[in-house]
Design goal:
Layout (H helix, E strand, L loop, with lengths): L15 E3 L3 E2 L6 E5 L5 E8 L4 E5 L14 H7 L4 E5 L5 E6 L5 E7 L16 H11 L5 E3 L6 E11 L11 H9 L13 H9 L3 E12 L4 H5 L8 H16 L10 H4 L11 E5 L9 E2 L2 E2 L7 E9 L6 E9 L12 H11 L39 H6 L5 E3 L4 E6 L8 E5 L7 E8 L11 E2 L2 E2 L1 E8 L23 E3 L7 H4 L37 E2 L7 E6 L13 E6 L5 E2 L10 E2 L14 E7 L7 E12 L9 E6 L2 E5 L19 H15 L13 E12 L4 E7 L16 E7 L1
Parallel strand pairs: 10-11, 10-12, 12-16, 17-19
Antiparallel strand pairs: 1-9, 2-15, 3-4, 4-5, 5-6, 6-7, 7-8, 13-14, 15-16, 18-26, 19-20, 20-23, 21-22, 23-24, 25-26, 27-36, 28-29, 30-35, 31-34, 31-36, 32-33, 32-35
C-alpha cells in the first residue's frame, strides 16, 4: 500500500509558500496483519507520509515489537524486504512492477515461498511516484511561516479526542504537561526528559520552549472521517483542527494572543499569527502501520506538520495556519502516553527544518544521526531521539562553525555537551554550497546516549558532506549506482566504513559510520571513502583522528617541513616526495605542504600572492644556505606566462622566472652553483614527472612547465625560507597555477 503527501518550501522567519505536509518516518518495528484466511503474518511498514508500503523480511521475523532494539536487531529490522501490497481479495501478496513500472499484485500470498527472482524493495521509478502523489493529493498554495528558534517560544498544545474515542482511556492533561514541560526525567511519562529538555540540550539553552496544554476537547466526528482514507493527509484533517480550536475558544480557557511569539520577541509588537501550536489526538499513529484500536492505518492519522487555510480568533484577531499533529498514545495498543521523539521532530519543522530522511524510499538520508531523519532513535523507542545534525544547528543559529583554512590539530567537543563546536571546510574551487562539516557524536547527554558501540569504540567524528544547492534528501547516490555523483543527498553523512549503507537503505545508521582511532582515523582525497567534492575537487587530508572521547582531535593538512636540528654544515636534504605538493590558498594566506595530494592548484584574481613556508632550524645565526628547488606547473594564458617563483629569507630574495615549456628545461643555476649531482637528480625528477607519474588535475587545461634552480640566501636561526608563487601576470579569467616542490636541497655554508 502507499500514501502520498504534498511538499513544503521553507524560509525561516519569513513568509513562504507551503505545498505539502511534512511528516514522520515509518516505524522501525514489525507489525502483525491478518490474511483473509485468518493466518497472521509479520510485516514492516516502510517509507514516510509521502510514500509508504509494506515489506516482508524473512530474516527479521523474531524482532520483538515496541521494546528497545539492540544494534543487531535494528540492522535486521532495516534489512530490505520484499514489497507487499493487497490484491482485489484483500490478501497481502508480493508485489511486482507491470509494463508501466507500477505496483501490481502477484498471485503469491505472503507466507508462501517467495517467488524466484523477485527483487527486494521494489519501488516504482521517481516519475511514477510523483505521478501517484499528484493524483492522490493536489498541491496547496497557502502562506506559511517558520517560528524564530531563539529565546522563549510559547507553544499551545491542544488535546483532541475523536468522537468514537469517548470511551478510550487516555493520559491526563497533567501527564502531557510533564511530557512537554518537565525539568527532569519523569518515570513512565518522560523517562529521558521532556520535549522542553530536548530543545534545551540541542539549542545549548538558546531556546526555551514553554508549552501550555489545553485539556481534552471532544470533536464532533470520528477518527476515520478526519483521516479520510489517506491517513489524515488531506484537507479533511483541517476540519478536526478547526473544530478543536472552536471548542477551545468557546471554553474561554486560552488567550490566543499569548501565543503570538513576536509580542515577546519584538517589544510587544505581534504579527497576528500563532507561531507554534501542537495538536495531540486520541488515536494511534498511522506510521506504526497495521490495525490499531480496530482502525487500519489509512483510517488513522500520520503525524505531520502542515499549513491549513487560516483559522482566526474573533476576539484577538490572531490566526492559526501552521500546525503539527501527533499521537496521544504509543504504539498500536494500550494506553501508554505518546513519546517525545515524534513531537520533537514535528516541532523542528516549525522552525524551518526540512525532513532529512530519503523521500524516495530507496535510502535512509541522515538516518539515526539526525532528529530530522529519524525521530525513533537508534533503539526505536523515541525515548532517545538523536540530536539534530550539525547542519540543522547551524541553520537554526544554535551553533557556529569555525572555517578551517590553516593546517593544524583541532579539538572537537561532543555535540551533546554545552561546549560543542563544529568545523567547516570549503572546497578551494566550485560552488560555496558544497562543503564539509565536522562534529563529535558521543553516547553522552540524554539523547545521543543511545549511540551504540562499534569497532574501536562508541561514538566518533561525524563528517557531513553538504550540498545546499540540492533541494531535499531524495537523490541517493553511491559509487556504482546510476547517476552518481550527480545524484547525492543535500545533507549526507560520509560513512567511515565506506559501505554507503544509508544511501543503499541497508540500515538507519550504526556505530561504524563515524571516524575514530581503531576504526577509521583518516579522510583524504585517496581513502575510501574520500573527501573529494562531487566534481572531484580535492581537500587537504583529515587524519590522525583520535580515539573516541567526549573531546576528540584531528589533524587537518600538514605542518611545515622541519629539518632535524642535527647536521649544521655540509648538505641538509629536505625530501618532499613527488606525490606531495604545496598548496597556495586562494585568499593569499600562508599554506603548507599537503601530504596526501598529487597536485594542488588555485584560482584567483591577478596580483594574488601565494606562498608556503619551510622552517630550517640553524644553531648559529646568519649562516649562508644554498636552496635548490625544482618547480612545475601549467599555464593557460595567451602568452604562456605563469608567474614567477620567489625564494626569500630574512629580507633577501631571489626570483625564479620560469618560461613555459612542454618539456623540462635544462638546469639553470643561480649563484652559488648547485652541485652537479644535485642538478642531475633534479633533472631525473623532472623527467619522472614528465612521464606522468604525477599528472596535473584532469580538469586542468594547458601545457606543463618544469623548472629547477638554486639560489644563495642568508637564513637566521630557525627562521623560515618562504617560497612564493606570484600570479600577477595571470588574467582573472584564466588564472590557474599550481606548484609542486619535489625536493629542497639546503647546503649550509659554515
Amino acid at each position: 500500500m502507499w500514501l502520498c503527501r504534498i511538499g513544503c518550501t521553507f524560509l525561516v522567519f519569513w513568509i513562504a509558500t507551503d505545498q505539502r505536509a511534512i511528516g514522520n518516518l515509518a516505524s522501525p518495528f514489525p507489525v502483525e496483519v491478518t490474511q483473509p484466511s485468518g493466518e497472521t503474518i509479520q510485516l514492516y511498514i516502510r517509507g514516510n507520509e509521502k510514500l509508504n508500503w509494506y515489506e516482508y523480511v524473512p530474516e527479521a521475523r523474531n524482532i520483538q515489537r515496541g521494546v528497545a532494539m539492540s544494534p543487531a536487531d535494528a540492522t535486521l529490522a532495516a534489512t530490505p524486504g520484499y514489497t507487499v501490497i493487497k490484491d482485489a481479495d484483500g490478501r497481502y501478496v508480493y508485489a511486482q512492477l507491470d509494463a508501466d513500472s507500477n505496483w501490481v499484485p502477484t498471485d503469491v500470498a505472503v507466507g508462501a515461498e517467495v517467488p524466484q527472482n523477485l527483487q527486494r524493495r521494489l519501488i516504482p521509478p521517481p516519475e511514477n511516484v510523483q505521478r501517484m502523489i499528484r493524483a492522490r493529493l493536489p498541491e496547496q498554495n497557502i502562506p506559511s511561516r517558520a517560528a524564530a528558534p531563539l529565546g522563549t517560544v510559547k507553544n499551545l498544545v491542544v488535546l483532541l479526542r475523536f468522537a468514537d474515542h469517548t470511551g478510550r482511556t487516555l493520559p491526563s492533561k497533567a501527564d502531557y504537561e510533564q511530557l512537554f514541560n518537565a525539568q527532569s526525567p519523569v518515570p513512565n511519562l518522560a523517562p529521558t526528559g521532556s520535549v522542553k529538555m530536548f530543545y534545551q540540550e540541542n539549542s545549548y539553552a538558546k531556546m526555551n520552549l514553554e508549552s501550555t496544554v489545553v485539556d481534552w476537547v471532544t470533536l464532533p466526528k470520528k477518527e476515520a472521517y478526519y483521516a479520510n482514507g489517506q491517513s489524515g493527509l488531506t484537507s479533511r484533517i483541517w476540519e478536526a483542527l478547526r473544530d478543536g480550536l472552536d471548542l477551545v475558544r468557546a471554553s474561554g480557557s486560552v488567550d490566543f494572543a499569548d501565543f503570538d511569539n513576536e509580542i515577546n520577541q519584538n517589544g510587544g509588537k505581534g504579527d497576528g499569527w500563532i507561531d507554534a501550536i501542537t495538536f495531540v489526538h486520541s488515536g494511534y499513529a498511522a506510521e506504526f502501520g497495521g490495525v490499531a484500536g480496530g482502525a487500519d492505518m489509512d483510517d488513522r492519522i500520520w503525524s505531520h506538520r502542515w499549513t491549513m487555510t487560516p483559522w482566526t480568533d474573533p476576539a484577538s484577531g490572531v490566526k492559526v495556519s501552521n500546525y503539527n499533529i501527533n499521537p496521544g498514545i504509543w504504539g498500536t495498543s494500550g494506553t501508554a502516553i505518546g513519546r517525545i521523539g515524534v513531537i520533537c521532530h514535528e516541532l523542528g519543522h516549525f522552525f524551518g527544518l526540512p525532513d532529512l530522511y530519503d523521500y524516495s524510499g530507496k535510502g535512509e538520508g541522515c538516518g539515526s544521526w539526525c532528529l530530522m531523519a529519524n525521530s525513533w532513535g537508534f533503539d526505536g523507542t523515541q525515548f532517545r531521539p538523536p540530536h539534530m545534525s550539525a547542519w540543522c544547528k547551524l541553520f537554526l543559529s544554535w551553533n557556529s562553525a569555525q572555517l578551517l583554512s590553516t593546517p593544524g590539530t583541532y579539538e572537537v567537543e561532543a555535540t551533546s555537551l554545552p561546549g560543542a563546536n563544529i568545523y567547516r571546510i570549503n572546497y578551494p574551487s566550485g560552488p560555496l554550497s558544497e562543503y564539509l562539516l565536522i562534529e563529535n557524536r558521543q553516547a553522552v547527554g540524554r539523547y545521543d546516549g543511545g549511540i551504540p558501540a562499534g569497532t574501536g569504540g562508541q561514538g566518533g567524528l561525524a563528517i557531513w558532506h553538504i550540498d545546499d544547492s540540492v533541494p531535499e534528501n531524495d537523490q541517493p547516490g553511491y559509487p556504482g549506482s546510476d547517476g552518481f555523483p550527480a545524484d547525492h543527498y543535500k545533507v549526507g553523512l560520509i560513512q567511515a566504513d565506506g559501505l554507503w549503507e544509508l544511501e543503499k537503505g541497508l540500515n538507519r545508521g550504526n556505530a561504524n559510520d563515524v571516524f575514530r582511532q581503531g576504526h577509521n582515523d583518516s579522510l583524504t582525497a585517496t581513502t575510501d571513502p574520500n573527501s573529494n567534492s562531487f566534481t572531484g575537487v580535492q581537500l587537504p587530508p583529515i587524519k590522525n583522528i583520535s580515539a573516541s572521547s567526549s573531546k576528540m582531535s584531528f589533524q587537518y593538512g600538514d605542518a611545515p617541513i622541519i629539518v632535524d636540528d642535527t647536521v649544521l654544515a655540509g648538505v641538509v636534504n629536505v625530501e618532499v616526495p613527488t606525490s606531495h605538493s604545496v598548496n597556495f590558498s586562494p585568499d593569499g594566506k600562508a599554506a603548507t605542504i599537503l601530504l596526501d595530494r598529487l597536485v594542488s592548484y588555485a584560482y584567483g584574481d591577478a596580483a594574488e600572492v601565494k606562498h608556503a613556508t619551510f622552517v630550517l632550524p640553524l644553531k648559529d645565526a646568519s649562516e649562508n644556505a644554498t636552496v635548490a628547488i625544482q618547480v612545475r606547473g601549467y599555464y593557460s594564458t595567451d602568452d604562456g606566462s605563469v608567474g614567477r617563483v620567489i625564494l626569500s629569507a630574512n629580507g633577501s630574495a631571489s626570483i625564479i622566472d620560469p618560461k613555459a615549456s612542454a618539456a623540462p628545461q635544462a638546469s639553470r643555476a643561480m649563484e652559488p652553483d648547485a652541485k652537479g649531482a644535485k642538478q642531475a637528480n633534479h633533472r631525473a625528477t623532472a623527467e619522472r614527472i614528465r612521464r606522468g607519474n604525477n599528472p596535473k588535475p584532469s580538469n586542468v587545461t594547458g601545457d606543463d612547465f618544469f623548472y629547477e634552480s638554486s639560489t644563495s640566501l642568508v637564513v637566521d636561526e630557525k627562521l623560515p625560507i618562504t617560497i612564493v608563487l606570484q600570479t600577477e601576470r595571470l588574467t582573472s579569467d584564466s588564472v590557474g597555477a599550481y606548484l609542486v616542490i619535489d625536493s629542497i636541497d639546503v647546503e649550509i655554508k659554515p
